[in-house]
Amino acid sequence: KAGVTQTPRYLIKTRGQQVTLSCSPISGHRSVSWYQQTPGQGLQFLFEYFSETQRNKGNFPGRFSGRQFSNSRSEMNVSTLELGDSALYLCASSMNWMTNTEAFFGQGTRLTVV
Amino acid sequence: AQKITQTQPGMFVQEKEAVTLDCTYDTSDPSYGLFWYKQPSSGEMIFLIYQGSYDQQNATEGRYSLNFQKARKSANLVISASQLGDSAMYFCAMRVGGGSQGNLIFGKGTKLSVKP
């Protein structure tokens, strides 16, 4: 059974640009959530999707957005990139958005903004 | 407020010895789940073990066990027979159920170094 797949693994972007990251969950999992990890702030929740609907959102500006497709794959988009957006972006896959028993992560996308 | 606290920024352990990584949590919701993840330098978050708030027994997964003390609100991870490959960051996380939140709340992590 394939795990959670995130693409690309690494990205370098310039301030002001926008970026799209992709996450394919484990087969059969319908919930995808996104996290940002930085040395200063640690792991912070961005948003969570289930059945193509955003169920929960963290405390991030509107420049951060996401969506989920009918096959449960999810994308997150960051517009007007800032230096502080440099981080490891991780996505987690669960069977159900309220399931308490599992959350498996992908390898992450390391974004560098220059 | 819901919160996870890991008070040990770094830990050292001798190879083949056991080590305990501390985690305390705070929530008023009676239904919650507690997770431990390992993050090597490659960045991937590797799921280790899960404990539900209603589980009567402490969770175990191979060399990993979770010392769940509900009254103290602690969920310490015990790694037995440490191996060099156990050197990594370890994160404790909580997910609260019964409401609209499905997200994980993470602690700051503990960096474990295993010495040969």
Q: Using the alpha-carbon principal axes, give the shape of chain A.
A: globular
Radius of gyration of chain A: 13 Å
Work out the oligomeric state of the chains in this entry: heterodimer
**Total helical elements of chain B:** 0
- Secondary structure: helix percent of chain B: under 10%
CA distance, first residue to last residue of chain B = 41 Å
What amount of the residues of chain B lies in strands? over 45%
Mean pLDDT of chain B: 93
Report the end-to-end length of chain A measured between terminal Cα atoms.
37 Å
Compact description:
The complex is a heterodimer of chains A (114) and B (116). Chain A is mainly β and 114 residues long. Chain A is built from no helices and eleven strands.
Structure description:
The complex is a heterodimer of chains A (114) and B (116). Chain A is mainly beta and 114 residues long. Chain A contains no helices and eleven strands. Chain A is globular and about 35 Å long. The N and C termini of chain B lie far apart (41 Å). In chain B, strand 7 and strand 8 (64-69) form a beta hairpin. Helices cover 0% and strands 53% of the residues of chain B. The chains are: A mainly beta (114), B mainly beta (116). Chains A and B meet through strand 4, strand 5, strand 9 and strand 10 of A and strand 5, strand 6, strand 10 and strand 11 of B.
Primary descriptors:
heterodimer; A: 114 residues; mainly beta; 7-stranded mixed sheet; 11 strands; B: 116 residues; 6-stranded mixed sheet; 4-stranded antiparallel sheet; 53% strand
